Amino acid sequence: MKSLVVALGASALVVGAAGAASSPLRIAAAIPTGKHPAGVVLAGGSLWVANDVDNSVSRIDPATNTVTATIKLHGNNFPDPSFVTAGGGALWAVAPTTGTVSRLDLRTGRVTATSAVPGLALGIALVGNYVWVTSFDTYRCSNNRCFSELTRFDSQSGKVKGIYKADSATGMDAGFGSLWIVNHRSWSVTRFDPRTGTIVRVIPIRIGHEGTREGPERLVIGLGSVWVSQPSQDLVTRIDPRTDAIAARIRFPRNASPVQLAVGAGSLWAVGPKQIFRIDPKTSRIVESAAIGRHPGSDYHGLRSIAAANGAVWVTDGDANTVDRIEVGS
To answer: How far separated are the first and last CA of the chain, in Å rounded?
Structure first.
C-alpha cells in the first residue's frame, strides 16, 4: 500500500505501513515473570511487571535481567492487575475487573494502600499529588450512555479525594497541563483540566461508522503529541495539543491491532497481540516492526504491554509468561 495523503479536518496525514524496513529488533533477554504479565514500567531503578492471574507484581533488576522480588497484592474477588504507573516514590497498579487500585513503595516494594473504584478500572495517571483512575461499566447503560467515572486519589494516603462524571473512559495519560482521556463508546478524547476538575474540550476521532464496541482504547503522551490507539481499525491517531486537532493517522498492517503505546528512544512504540512497531515521530511512519514470541491464539492475546526506557523496549508476553527486553539504543 502506498502512502496516502487525504484531508481530515484541517489537514491530517494518513500514512501507510508498507514502507516499514526489515527489522533488526531482536529479544536480548526473556525474563520469567508471574502468570500472564501485563502492565510494565521502569521506576526507582527497577522494572515492575503486573501479573494479572497471580495478582502480583514482579520486581526486576534491569542490570542483571533477574527477578529480585515478587510482591503479592491485596483485594477482593480475584483482582487482575493489568495497568501500572509510577511517580512520587510509589508504584500504582490497577486491576480492571475488580477496580482494585494498589499503591506500593518503590524503595521497599511493600503494599501501602489498597482502594477500589466501581466498574472496570481501565486507566491511571499521576498529576502532582494526585492519582487519577478511569472506570467504565458496559453493563450499566441507559439511553446509549454507560456508567463511567474519573476518581482522584491522594498519592500518599491512597484515599479518594474526588469523583467526576466521565463518558466511557478507558485509557488515560497526563501532559501539557491536562489529563487526556479516551472515550471508547463515543470515539473521542476528552481534554480535562485536573486543577479545576472541568472539561476543556472533547476531540472527535471517529473515521466512519464504527460501532460503539470498536472504539479507541489506549493513549500515551510524548514527542510533542497525544497518540491514541484504535486497534479495531489498525490505526493510531496523532493529536496536536497546541490546537487539539488531528495531525496524522498512522495505518498498520491488517489485523495488527495496535493497542498499547509507549514513548522512548526518540520514537513511538506500539504493540499488538503478536508484533511490535516503531514509529518515527518526524514522519508519522512505521520504520521498524517485529514479530515477538509464539502466539497460537491464546485467551491472553499474546503480547500485553510495552515500555521504553534506558535504551531498551520491554514487552510483556502473556503466552510465554515473560517480559522481553529488546535493545534499541537511546
So the answer is: 30
Q: Rounded to an integer, what distance in angstroms lies between the CA atom of residue 140 and that of residue 148?
A: 9
| pLDDT tens-digit readout, 297-309 | 655 568 999 999 9
Residue 3 has pLDDT above 50, yes or no: no
Other C-beta atoms closer than 10 Å to the C-beta of 149 total: 18
- Give the CB-side neighbour count of residue 109, counting CA atoms within 13 A: 18
The CB density around residue 3, as the number of other CB atoms within 10 Å, is 15
Q: Scanning the structure block, which residue is given the C-alpha cell 479495531?
A: 232
pLDDT of residue 297: 63
* Positive/negative CA dihedral, 154, 157, 163, 169: positive
* Whole-number Å distance between alpha carbons of 108 and 84: 17
Per-residue b/e over 157-189, b at no fewer than 16 CB within 10 Å?
A: ebeeeeebebbbbbbbbbbeebbbbbbbbbbbb
Q: Output the pTM of the full model.
A: 0.91
CATH code of domain 1-32+252-330: 2.40.10.480
